[in-house]
Amino acid sequence: xxxxxxxxxxxxxxxxxxxxxxxxxxxxxxxxxxxxxxxxxxxxxxxxxxxxxxxxxxxxxxxxxxxxxxxxxxxxxxxxxxxxxxxxxxxxxxxxxxxxxxxxxxxxxxxxxxxxxxxxxxxxxxxxxxxxxxxxxxxxxxxxxxxxxxxxxxxxxxxxxxxxxxxxxxxxxxxxxxxxxxxxxxxxxxxxxxxxxxxxxxxxxxxxxxxxxxxxxxxxxxxxxxxxxxxxxxxxxxxxxxxxxxxxxxxxxxxxxxxxxxxxxxxxxxxxxxxxxxxxxxxxxxxxxxxxxxxxxxxxxxxxxxxxxxxxxxxxxxxxxxxxxxxxxxxxxxxxxxxxxxxxxxxxxxxxxxxxxxxxxxxxxxxxxxxxxxxxxxxxxxxxxxxxxxxxxxxxxxxxxxxxxxxxxxxxxxxxxxxxxxxxxxxxxxxxxxxxxxxxxxxxxxxxxxxxxxxx
Amino acid sequence: xxxxxxxxxxxxxxxxxxxxxxxxxxxxxxxxxxxxxxxxxxxxxxxxxxxxxxxxxxxxxxxxxxxxxxxxxxxxxxxxxxxxxxxxxxxxxxxxxxxxxxxxxxxxxxxxxxxxxxxxxxxxxxxxxxxxxxxxxxxxxxxxxxxxxxxxxxxxxxxxxxxxxxxxxxxxxxxxxxxxxxxxxxxxxxxxxxxxxxxxxxxxxxxxxxxxxxxxxxxxxxxxxxxxxxxxxxxxxxxxxxxxxxxxxxxxxxxxxxxxxxxxxxxxxxxxxxxxxxxxxxxxxxxxxxxxxxxxxxxxxxxxxxxxxxxxxxxxxxxxxxxxxxxxxxxxxxxxxxxxxxxxxxxxxxxxxxxxxxxxxxxxxxxxxxxxxxxxxxxxxxxxxxxxxxxxxxxxxxxxxxxxxxxxxxxxxxxxxxxxxxxxxxxxxxxxxxxxxxxxxxxxxxxxxxxxxxxxxxxxxxxxxxxxxxxxxxxx
Lengths: 456, 476
Hints:
The complex is a heterodimer of chains A (456) and B (476).
Chain A: H1 2-18, E1 21-24, H2 26-39, E2 47-51, H3 78-85, E3 89-94, H4 128-135, E4 141-146, H5 152-158, E5 161-164, E6 184-189, H6 192-202, E7 230-234, H7 244-259, E8 263-267, H8 274-290, H9 308-319, H10 322-335, H11 340-363, E9 367-371, H12 387-392, H13 398-403, E10 407-414, E11 420-427, H14 432-446, H15 452-455
Helix pairs in contact in A: 4-5, 8-10, 8-11
Chain B: E1 3-13, H1 52-64, E2 68-69, E3 72-73, E4 76-79, E5 89-92, E6 99-100, E7 103-108, E8 111-124, E9 128-130, E10 139-141, E11 148-154, H2 161-177, E12 190-199, E13 210-215, H3 218-237, E14 247-252, E15 257-263, E16 273-274, E17 281-282, H4 285-291, H5 300-311, H6 315-322, H7 325-336, H8 341-356, H9 366-377, H10 383-396, H11 400-407, H12 415-428, H13 430-437, H14 441-454, H15 461-474
Parallel strand pairs in B: 13-14
Antiparallel strand pairs in B: 1-11, 1-12, 2-6, 3-17, 4-5, 4-16, 6-8, 7-8, 8-11, 9-10, 12-13, 14-15
């Protein structure tokens, strides 16, 4: 008991200034810990933070939305089931942008989360609560979900490690759907090693998710011989208008790969300016359908009205925040008759083309490097009235989302203001192994990512 | 007179043990919301898992009607918000259905005509709403939510309401025989919407098409279509053809008329798109062949003709028996076991049909029916006693022997006992005896009836008859 009290009081001390959690399972903790210890698996006794769009039986599942303010999960997500069996337990549910739509966690209906590195800055989003909780040392690890960058971008902003797995390698069963053909659950941790460990528990096919047919994952050995590793880097990245500190970090990472003997080649992967638009068309279309079920009839807040239709309208008007409404409306529009062919289907064709280009890229390369974001974290409120500015922060993360490939964001350097910078390492579909081998190889030579800054 | 053009959309519930996308039971009649789980309730975070049995039954249905089975088909989402639809979209097949083409034969003016099918696709049923009278609320039951259906869409090939009904009956028996569906319209496991338009004879230009929904029995199909034909032809005849608008009308069985539901302008935009939660359905030739193994090949018309030729039945008898797979199957089973299949047909179509219409299936099997017929033919039971046994077995089950025992209906051939009874009856009815002597045959029947009544039908009629005659001799 004492241990639990001490644990929660430590968390509460930090929580007051950071606001990473929407709920903490103080009451259930003891029982959870006892069960976890009985399991004695690879993560025995490890407390994790879980993004509040992933179902943990008996705990709230709000998606940071007023709509689901009092909703509790009646079942465990597949990832939760697997983590339980490996001995982990779940300390609480972390804050996020409402229904995972956003990049700062400011779209939470309940509270802001602050970046532990500098409290004036956002932690990124949508998995901002998970990122902040890990960065502040409140939990050793957390789960996030990534649709267009929602694990990688907050990991980069908070200076931690975050993996968006290959689409179909981690089960989505129990993840409240935002955009079903993009969503993936992934680990967020302070180190690459911890990230890999959690990933090895949650990866693998699940019959409850027919789109999840990926292979199980075994912990990889670090790469020692880089001489055959072909690394693609973005040609003329300096022309892309990214922050100087981010550009410098990128060039440094490229240099690091060169130094260990990897074959570094510039890839003429023109960052397609349409990618962000295509991502918003497709993800909003799917969201408009996925969020239809929140009508106030069976659960969630219930509006008043003279007819069923009015009641539903009132429930949705009151339950959803501005950004969610914006995307549901946009998504409904692009799927409607007359626009579907012009917009939605065109975007789908673009996605197919991009997938082919990505396949081509990885036919001659093992890894592809990109910054995670064009700039470090911004201040709270900075993009509040500027959704487009917020959307453009996704330019480097959406390519992996559109094509379903795995991408790991590692903390790599700091900006002039001391804010963390993230670098993204991508591989071909289903090749998380290659990413972890290489990254662990670099760590064994040059130090652990995320801990190097303190060393300097 | 105008030519009638009808196309049907039939929803049929497939006979799977579990729902289309989860493991919940499909049993009919359970208490509301007892056959539900997070998946069919559409709880946040849940995902569908395809029931392989449903895919295989849909392939089988394609086999029954000679459709082409598509090697690749796809589930789509049909988006609309209604309280009976917990995900706010129905998972269905839109641009890529599992079966295309095929057909069902019907008779038109003595000729066999093939009614072509457009497609057969798989979809899930929504839940069911109930609106209690005098209350300001509705209730939702999600037991039906996720029940697997196939939707069979015909081309506009049907030419009359009767033909539409004949088509539906043929379709139903074929689905039932192939083990795909029970097709119980009364339990909602078969539902029908109709598209109907009229055209001037000899022209190719179709009139405006009207869709009729909410038709719940074969009789209603015919009534609803006849009523709509009349409504449209009246409007055309009086030069008011422009009042026929493209719309959906609802059949009101109580009032016996169709009423407007929504016009084309109000038609909802369902925003169909491929369901990203479900990979495409890819079928190999082996899978298709396995699903179509032991498929009955006989069509409804062929079966009717066989019943006429091999069992010596009239067209009417054969039609009645083959309109319903349960009756047809029973006829085949019992007919094979009897020297005179016509007698079997008579039993099924008189005593059997009367009780069967009450709606709980045919509760006497072929073996029991043959046992019962045997007791009559051997003289053990009178016909009227046999009817009582039939009803008893129907109600309570068990064997014919036990039923006879329980009802105390063993035929009474005890001459002494019957003689005493007959003497007593004659003594009580001197008027009848006098009339017989005066040559009134009906009076004899009256005495026989009295004997049968007092023995509850157990008196052996032949013996009773000869004993009455003997008693009459004595009084001469």
